[in-house]
Automatic annotation (TrEMBL):
Tagged with keyword Signal: yes
Keyword annotations of the record: Signal
Record-linked Gene3D superfamilies: Ribonuclease Inhibitor
InterPro entries tied to this protein: LRR_dom_sf
Domain of life: Eukaryota
Species this chain originates from: Forsythia ovata
Signal peptide: 1-22
Lineage of the organism: Eukaryota, Viridiplantae, Streptophyta, Embryophyta, Tracheophyta
Protein name from the UniProt record: F-box family protein
Length: 167
């Protein structure tokens, strides 16, 4: 159990303290100090980079998340997307509506069916990065064009995309 002095600190004060920490090492030390600090860090965190697809179900525990990076999970494909999204607890689907930026670069197995599921799940996306996704073509780009709020689409090194899907 944490000392009473830590429990009396307001969450707002702890959020101000954590916002002053600029170094990642300092932030890691802060959140590993105690459970209260870990909870405050999860309230403050807005960007998450997942290194293993199995940990995608943990993102529901971070309420202020607005940016999600799956670029370090190159094994994500059309078959794993439904499995990953179904592993998220049913009462926590509201976090998907808060995600504004999604980085899918280097997800080489992601094609049209998987992107359709992503578009249906993350309806408020404003920025999508599909750079270096092999096999990304007009059909996949057309599925992303269904996002009403899409402002930025990054697809560097995509040789199979033409301007047919625009419109």
């Amino acid at each position: 159990m944490e000392p009473p002095s830590i429990l009396t600190l307001l969450t707002g004060l702890l959020l101000k303290i954590i916002s002053l920490l600029t170094d990642d090492c300092d932030r890691k030390s802060f959140r590993s100090t105690c459970k209260v600090f870990h909870r405050v860090d999860s309230l403050h965190r807005t960007h998450l980079r997942v290194f293993r697809p199995e940990f995608l179900s943990l993102v529901a525990k971070i309420p202020s998340l607005d940016s999600h990076d799956l670029s370090d999970c190159p094994r994500i494909d059309d078959g794993t997307i439904p499995l990953l999204l179904s592993s998220i607890p049913s009462g926590s689907s509201s976090w998907a509506g808060k995600i504004k930026r999604l980085n899918l670069s280097r997800c080489t197995g992601l094609r049209f069916p998987g992107l359709q599921i992503v578009v249906g799940f993350f309806v408020n996306l404003e920025s999508v990065d599909v750079s270096y996704c092999s096999g990304f073509g007009n059909r996949e780009a057309a599925s992303l064009s269904c996002l009403a709020g899409l402002r930025e689409l990054n697809f560097n090194k995509r040789l199979y995309v033409t301007d047919v899907w625009i419109g």
